[in-house]
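User: structure tokens for this one?
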Amino acid sequence: MPSHIDVLCGDYRGAMVTNSRAILADSKYLEQEGPLNFYTLYRCHNYHFKLYSAMFLGQYQPALEAADQLMSTIREELLRVEQPPMADWLEGFVSMKVHVQIRFGKWQDILATPLPNDQALYCVTTAMLHYARGVAHAATGYIAAAEAEQRLLLEAWTRVPDTRYLFNNKCTDILAVAAGMLSGEIEYRKGNYDDAFAHLRQALSLDDNLPYDEPWGWMQPVRHALGALLLEQGRVEEALQAYRADLGLDNTLSRASWHLDNVWSLHGYAECLRRLDWMPKLRNRPAPLRLVNSIQHRAQERAFIIQDNSSLGSLRHQSDAFLVPLAFFAIVNVMAPCKDACRHLRHPPAIAAYPTGCARNGFERLRGHLRPARLSSLTASHLVADRRGNPLKSSPFGSACRR
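Assistant:
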């Protein structure tokens, strides 16, 4: 599957498109053979990858669509097959929808979701739904209800057998990350910030050390929540470090833990740079400014709109819409600053349209920390060649970008 390469290069749109095509191709097999067979496991992989990619793009509707299709294709009668033990391989996928809902702050949708009738068969789904409900209650200020869901999560976690997997990962290990995330969320809402960050860093360690998998076992990087909350508390340098690591701009993480070009960390990183007032320093350097102007020109062709999802009334979201040209680089220079960036980060916006990809490491390049050879192939494809592969005469990097 080319999408395995796309995701590692930060081309989430490419991964979403190729998996949509795979789903379409598999629909012919599904129509002929039905869902009650082992091949359903592989078909799940396509839906799983599509929603994972869409989440990194900030695309709610494609992610939700893939999650709904994933749930509908895993029939209860298939999960009840004991030889081979289909529930051990497939039931973990049923809970993917709650990750989409958490990512996009759909708290009321989460709270309206009923628990499974057979909680023994759907043990992972039950536990993950308690996690999601706990986050939803905490985010909307109902701490006692969140703590009640936390207790239910811990109880449900103990009922998940060690034989239940999500591809390479035990579901019990994945739920350990969920438990840490929920603890951090609750403590933060109670005002115990140091305890909250300690829980989140523990969840971060568990997330980083999950067995290798594509998509990764935990569906949204812990660093996104950690960075946003650190930023909200004014701990900008720590937030910057979290976003840098997530984007692969330093060597603190293994290559498998980088999430190149994802809009969540790009947004957070840009906001950190703005708060640290790095732009005046950049404006005094002619060479970086020429690079910004060149990238801006290319980025305007692929601009997209981010608009706040205002369905969470009680959370006092800003309703501003702002234009974000795609090359990150220029996010700081061109993007109209969000009045309340932390709330956009904690309860992410819906993105109306997303272009073909984005230039990685743009701002780091401006700061002179990276050589052109370290730019990803995705950067080269967008800055050195057009969509048909024709070279761009105005490329600021020249042939040095090509690997």
